[in-house]
User: Fold these one by one.
Assistant:
Number 1:
Amino acid sequence: MSRRRGERDAGWVTETVQVGGSSVHLRRSTGADGVPLVHLHGFAISGAYLMPTARALVARGVNVVPDLPGYGRSPRRERVLDIPALAEATVAILDQLHLDQAILVGNSMGCAISLQVAHTAPERVHSLVLVSPAGGEHNRPLGRALGQLARDAFRESPRMLPVAVPDYVRFGPVNGLRLFRELTHFPALDRLLHTPVPTLAVLGVRDPLMPSPARVREVARLASEPLTVAVVDRAAHALNYSHPDVLAGVIGMWLDDAVGDASRVPAGVRVFSSP
């Protein structure tokens, strides 16, 4: 493992760990106790856009923000890893960092990876936070999903462009299309309803890749395990970047088992739980 101090964040280090014969770049906070939080990014993009929320959660425990194999500062791969392989890589990262358990905080495709880890290695997952858990029937066929993605691009903060565009260009349109197609066929709803660990789902009202909040509430009642859903007004798909303080507040409230405390609910957020 190689390590150096973060370029701009006090209390953070950047590290490289070996996973499956290739190196994985990650950012890690230092100096806090508690269950570690591992933030998993979406398709074709690095973990850089997850950093605002990770920084807002540093007091809760060690936060780890990897660039999964083939993404961001991690070396490119000849073959794009599918979701099960990315889940295996996530477990390998936990192994390399000697983390027995972690709270997985996924966004978009990172939610599918998190769900896959929870179903294949539940003993490694303390709990799940699924931010904009895309995938499945609502995003099919592929043409519909691409239209949803295009609409979302106009709803995200313009400040995200210099963060996201270089990653998308580096990843390449062919790889991006291939992986996005796989995401649309991932059984996100079924995995969510049968997740073996406590789960929080966070959705933006303006996110075109997600079903309506009313439909989400209806579906959440069918969950086999306790499922908490938070709906954030004026937010689109990438809440981790656009609404980091609100998202961190919701996560902290949920981890503290304080969902019923109205004083802890951030402004512009509605929360409900399955029976």
Note: Residues 83-96 form the longest helix (14 residues).
Number 2:
Amino acid sequence: MMTKVKICCIQSIAEAQIAIENGAYAIGLVSKMPSGPGGIEESKIREIALWAPENIKTVLLTSLRNPLEIIAQQKYCQTNIIQLVDFQKISTYKNLRAELPNVQIIQVIHVLDDSSISESFAVAKYVDMLLLDSGNPKLETKELGGTGRTHNWQISREIVNEVDIPVFLAGGLTPDNVVSAIKRVKPYGVDVCTGVRSDDELDAEKVKLFVEIVNEYD
């Protein structure tokens, strides 16, 4: 099966076009975050999501933890996937399932140590996918993505082996290291933000190269 490519931190329809034309499976649209790059207004997320072709997965990245707020945000933004970048109560997943039955849920696991393995296993039964990233939600100002750092891929590989749902790998991926990451972790897909940007803009050549390298490896 081909490794899926999700291009995150999309800022505009023009950037979405670059990602899609170069083979992206999904585009990530970042709402307000406590830190990190890529955040855009919810009106812009909605505009891009409604524009996107039906075969493209549109992903709302949210740092919200109140289920009613998450539901309202998604209903406005109109993406077909929600990516929860912070820790959630189990009851939140159940509320989202009940109110948004046609919207898939990705839970981000910030890989810090071996505790991330048990966290992933506990969450996997309630969501559609996991995304393993290099943030740190325990800091005073939370890091919830877009760090440009890699993490311990051995832990990520153990998580992939442990759960029965698709797993995306994120965190510091670039055209130079993505093949090594895929070989090591064997993820369902890879997610990239800073690794395909130049001067805060999506770099079409880097996107093209990143996707080509992934596809050639597959």
Note: The first helix runs from residue 13 to 21.
